[in-house]
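thread: overnight batch results

M.L. [08:02]
morning all. the overnight job finished for the chain we discussed friday. pasting input first so we're all looking at the same thing
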Amino acid sequence: MKNLFKVLFASLLLMSCSAETYSASLEATTPDPAASMADFCKKYPRPVYKNLKRISYASNWFELYQVADGVTAIYEPHQWQEVISYLIEGKSEALLFDTGNGIADIKKVVEHLTDKPIKILNSHTHYDHVGGNYAFDNVYGMDTAFTRDRQQGHANKDIAIEVSQEALCKPLPQGVSVQNHEGKPFKVKHFIKHGHIFDLGERQLEVIQVPGHTPDAIALIDRDAGLMWTGDTYYAGAIWLYAPETNLNQYSKSLQTLINEIPNFKALLPAHNTPWEQPEVLNRVQAGFKTVLNGKAVKKSQGEGMMEYTIPNEDNFSFLMRDEALPY
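M.L. [08:03]
and the structure it wrote out:
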């Protein structure tokens, strides 16, 4: 697991530096993760956050930003994954899209922001997006076997490294440690399908299934506001397509599904790193992915059965994939 973290940290460097700088870093001796993380943390906050309204909230873990009317990004900037959850408010109800790593109390944050009834929906059920689900009663999930299985949570041994020195920019919240951090089990109360509409009161959110990253991956759409939440199908950084449940053919089709929606939106709101991206970037992601599948991307083994594919003249994203034959 420790070696895998070093691999993942190498991919994290790509999120904050140019491709040229990144290549140079890979040629050097692998740095100590803790020292590298310290250097990485000096680069923050990311420039995009300077253009957003920060919401005052006393926390050593979360930062809150208003990204649109009735939309708050709940950002975890002090842990290497930089998870972003979103509170989306209508007139009568609110929806929390993802609940983060489960390292700090996201329910307390939500209760600070709104007194409306809360519905929980996950962009997908990887552990870093469902960590706070256990604290809520009204959890919605996609009607897939993968979603049902992920309700069981994750043992400490599987995710302890997420709260290790190597993964952090700042100290952990009080009471959280490498010894006790776990992904707590949760219960999905409502299973839903593609096309489900959440009516929050003068705000409707549409669910579209975009499998690939996981079988239960979704995008969430507010057509009236011109916003699309992309989960992990797209974010600025090294896009994770390595997990056993990832399906590259499905991912390619889902990219096209999102691209078909581009004319309807003014912004993408991803689940990591930055909460506001231009929809047109999806065209570059699709072109880059085709470059990978055509065997024309620059590839480099990252060990642990992982291959990183970078695209010439593109430093906004790369693809981390299994070291196996591609579906050409």
